[in-house]
Fold this protein.
Amino acid sequence: MFDEPLAPFTWLRVGGPAEVIFMPADEADLADFLKGLDPAVSVLPLGVGSNTLVRDGGLDGVIIRLGKPFAAIEPLDGARISAGAACLDAQVARAAAKAGIAGLEFYAGIPGTIGGAVTMNAGCYGAETRDILIEAHGYDRSGNPVTFTDPAAFTYRHGWGAEDGVIVTRVLFQGKPDDPAAVEARMAEITARREQTQPIREKTGGSTFKNPPGHSSWKLIDEAGWRGKLFGGAKFSDLHANFLINTGDATAADLEGLGEAVRSDVKARTGVDLRWEIKRVGKP
């Protein structure tokens, strides 16, 4: 697809067009495409856009969007589970629970895909992707297959993937055997907690800023008076002050402008530097 608007592909529902969107038919198609692509052309993988802000000027280069061929989930012996990068995190959590595999329950509380979870070491409620990852597979910018096996190297909200020039395609996780009913009960608790504390039915992008050492971003934003305060068509949620919201007619400039205004205000008040967790891409 050429000159395709990206707003429908992201949870914030903003952003200009992509120069090209490529949806590979399978891993061989992805590898062939990357091998034939001019190295000077930029490449960006995009899952369901749950943690991405595309600027209003759109994106040059190629967006790679993995679809159904990359969404297989397979429980394995030894309380392991294999998942394609296009699988929704919550789908993998449910499949693990059904198979009696514990340890992936936290994925029920994370929007987005497995590819994104590996790329940013996604986590919540005290668990992170690195805790369960055995290995991840993908293709580098030249179309060569690559494998990652060092999750201990993951840091807070930084894993392995796009920033390393890799398109993640599939992942292997290690869980623990458990009673399916017990796993599902813990997942239900996570889901209920998320519904009560996060604006999951709004046009949002998840947590906007990483938590600075020793601080909670939501608390810094709230104490600075930005909870629910409109900035064009954007605001930080009344329910959770670290969730950026498109109230209906926001532009990407509104959303990013609000985030930068909050960063500046918090830094002036407290000396704390808030750092974006939402990935901002494209041209203003």
The radius of gyration is 19 Å. The chain has six helices and 18 strands. The chain has a mean pLDDT of 96.
